[in-house]
Amino acid sequence: MKISVIGTGYLGATHAAAMAELGHQVLGMDTDTHKVEALNKGQAPFVERGLDDLLAKHTTARTLRFTASYAEAAEFADVHFLGIGTPQQAGSGAYDLTHLQAAVRRLAPQLRDHALIVGKSTVPVGTTAQLRQILTEHARPGSNIHLAWSPEFLRESLAVEDTLRPDRIVLGIENGDTTSEAVFRAVYAEILGAGSPLIVTSLSTAELIKGAANAFLATKISFINAMAELCELTGADVQQLALGLGYDQRIGFQGMRPGLGFGGGCLPKDLLGFTHRAEELGADQAVSFLRQVDAINRRRRERTVELAREMLGGTVVGKRIAVWGAAFKPGTDDIRDSPALAVAGALHRIGAEVTVHDPAALENARRACPSLDYADDPVSAVTGAALLLHLTDWPQYAETDPAEVRQHIAAPRVIDARSALDTDRWRRAGWTFRALGCP
Ligand SMILES: NC(=O)c1ccc[n+]([C@@H]2O[C@H](COP(=O)([O-])OP(=O)(O)OC[C@H]3O[C@@H](n4cnc5c(N)ncnc54)[C@H](O)[C@@H]3O)[C@@H](O)[C@H]2O)c1
Ligand SMILES: O=c1ccn([C@@H]2O[C@H](COP(=O)(O)OP(=O)(O)O[C@H]3O[C@H](CO)[C@@H](O)[C@H](O)[C@H]3O)[C@@H](O)[C@H]2O)c(=O)[nH]1
């Protein structure tokens, strides 16, 4: 089938490559010409496991290419996926839908009759009704454009795997629109055939499923981090507490890792966007706990700064601090709302000299936070430091030998804000070791 993907960032570039892998002819479209250029060379403009290989394979085979032209995308395909960014509005929790609306406005008059638009971006409930209005106003008179929504659940660092083998697919369609469902099933035939369940719903249910999923994931993380606060007050150990809960299969271990909390381009903004929209609709009471979920998450960052100050005898001014990690989580160079960079920046603002290392996100971090110092390897980052903060749980940090690192740091103090280092091993190597929520 001939498919376009409009918006080729983290979601869209992965989706385009995955659609080509399924055997479709794919044209990706983005207004960012640098991205288009890199993608046409078969290079992902960000770090994502397995994506470069897929891009190279399918751009070489000419089953996948990229353009900055709406007209070309509209002309090329009968099915158009939307992967456009829906960031947070400045100064408000609300979503900024202007990019999405602009794209639909530009595409509408150029679309072929009976084209299907399938939104994948994360949007507040009610968005598709607005987009339908835009289509009605701007599509060619007499043409029949189908609109469906299939929210995306991929995780960065596992994006290719999650796209090709999703644990479920959601499809929201307009009342009685069996055509869209049939076309969608044809696009996803291979994935559905391999057993991924498809849930077909109304458009508003599909919009809500995505918001609710991210609100739930955020709640789970903040729950365990709220327990960490309680542990800190009582001398209990949140890692053991998480173990004691996780064996209960109704609770589980996933999304229950205590620490510095959630960041990234999704959970923080989707939690706020979902809450904001629910409040607009009058469901304030139903979602008031989600305000706490956000507050607990922000407090973890403040607590880490506070603990650093405590370990340095009450002040960080003029002290050299090493930070391991800049990405919002391991396996990516994405620094959007990164808890690690937020803590590094806060320490710098109150007078510390901060040196950051990250295996993949250094370039992005340098550009976003030019006032911090950066090191190309974890050992040079700690050289001469009075404290080490472990803020992103890249596996290579857990594998580092604490005895070796100790030889380079001025004072062997460490805060493990991701509950990922081996406490006993670090203590045995002579480190003063603190972890959030642990004695
Ligand atoms: N990143 C993820 O893991 C993920 C997972 C699920 C859902 N989502 C959702 O997917 C959407 C995209 O997220 P992302 O992380 O890929 O963001 P991103 O910023 O990496 O990509 C968005 C892309 O849209 C492009 N764009 C903006 N306006 C455009 C326009 N008018 N026409 C064409 N292209 C345009 C941008 O240039 C950019 O390349 C968001 O709604 C996000 O919440 C993201
Ligand atoms: O037990 C945990 C799990 C995660 N995190 C943190 O939570 C954040 C988000 O992690 P994760 O969910 O793995 O990353 P994302 O790639 O942002 O994926 C989320 O956001 C996407 C965009 O909406 C969704 O598609 C995914 O389903 C959803 O998991 C990161 O900062 C993690 O460090 C924790 O602190 N503890």
From TrEMBL:
<dbReference type="InterPro" id="IPR014026">
    <property type="entry name" value="UDP-Glc/GDP-Man_DH_dimer"/>
</dbReference>
<dbReference type="InterPro" id="IPR001732">
    <property type="entry name" value="UDP-Glc/GDP-Man_DH_N"/>
</dbReference>
<dbReference type="InterPro" id="IPR036220">
    <property type="entry name" value="UDP-Glc/GDP-Man_DH_C_sf"/>
</dbReference>
<dbReference type="GO" id="GO:0000271">
    <property type="term" value="P:polysaccharide biosynthetic process"/>
</dbReference>
<comment type="pathway">
    <text>Nucleotide-sugar biosynthesis; UDP-alpha-D-glucuronate biosynthesis; UDP-alpha-D-glucuronate from UDP-alpha-D-glucose: step 1/1.</text>
</comment>
<dbReference type="InterPro" id="IPR036291">
    <property type="entry name" value="NAD(P)-bd_dom_sf"/>
</dbReference>
<feature type="binding site">
    <location>
        <position position="263"/>
    </location>
    <ligand>
        <name>substrate</name>
    </ligand>
</feature>
<dbReference type="Pfam" id="PF03720">
    <property type="entry name" value="UDPG_MGDP_dh_C"/>
</dbReference>
<feature type="binding site">
    <location>
        <position position="30"/>
    </location>
    <ligand>
        <name>NAD(+)</name>
    </ligand>
</feature>
<feature type="binding site">
    <location>
        <position position="156"/>
    </location>
    <ligand>
        <name>NAD(+)</name>
    </ligand>
</feature>
<dbReference type="InterPro" id="IPR014027">
    <property type="entry name" value="UDP-Glc/GDP-Man_DH_C"/>
</dbReference>
<dbReference type="Pfam" id="PF03721">
    <property type="entry name" value="UDPG_MGDP_dh_N"/>
</dbReference>
<dbReference type="GO" id="GO:0006065">
    <property type="term" value="P:UDP-glucuronate biosynthetic process"/>
</dbReference>
<feature type="binding site">
    <location>
        <position position="122"/>
    </location>
    <ligand>
        <name>NAD(+)</name>
    </ligand>
</feature>
<keyword id="KW-0560">Oxidoreductase</keyword>
<dbReference type="GO" id="GO:0003979">
    <property type="term" value="F:UDP-glucose 6-dehydrogenase activity"/>
</dbReference>
<feature type="active site" description="Nucleophile">
    <location>
        <position position="266"/>
    </location>
</feature>
<feature type="domain" description="UDP-glucose/GDP-mannose dehydrogenase C-terminal">
    <location>
        <begin position="322"/>
        <end position="423"/>
    </location>
</feature>
<feature type="binding site">
    <location>
        <position position="35"/>
    </location>
    <ligand>
        <name>NAD(+)</name>
    </ligand>
</feature>
<feature type="binding site">
    <location>
        <position position="210"/>
    </location>
    <ligand>
        <name>substrate</name>
    </ligand>
</feature>
<dbReference type="GO" id="GO:0051287">
    <property type="term" value="F:NAD binding"/>
</dbReference>
<dbReference type="InterPro" id="IPR017476">
    <property type="entry name" value="UDP-Glc/GDP-Man"/>
</dbReference>
<feature type="binding site">
    <location>
        <begin position="153"/>
        <end position="156"/>
    </location>
    <ligand>
        <name>substrate</name>
    </ligand>
</feature>
<comment type="similarity">
    <text>Belongs to the UDP-glucose/GDP-mannose dehydrogenase family.</text>
</comment>
<feature type="binding site">
    <location>
        <position position="86"/>
    </location>
    <ligand>
        <name>NAD(+)</name>
    </ligand>
</feature>
<feature type="binding site">
    <location>
        <position position="336"/>
    </location>
    <ligand>
        <name>NAD(+)</name>
    </ligand>
</feature>
<dbReference type="InterPro" id="IPR008927">
    <property type="entry name" value="6-PGluconate_DH-like_C_sf"/>
</dbReference>
<dbReference type="InterPro" id="IPR028357">
    <property type="entry name" value="UDPglc_DH_bac"/>
</dbReference>
<protein>
    <recommendedName>
        <fullName>UDP-glucose 6-dehydrogenase</fullName>
        <ecNumber>1.1.1.22</ecNumber>
    </recommendedName>
</protein>
<feature type="binding site">
    <location>
        <position position="269"/>
    </location>
    <ligand>
        <name>NAD(+)</name>
    </ligand>
</feature>
<keyword id="KW-0520">NAD</keyword>
<dbReference type="Pfam" id="PF00984">
    <property type="entry name" value="UDPG_MGDP_dh"/>
</dbReference>
<feature type="binding site">
    <location>
        <position position="329"/>
    </location>
    <ligand>
        <name>substrate</name>
    </ligand>
</feature>
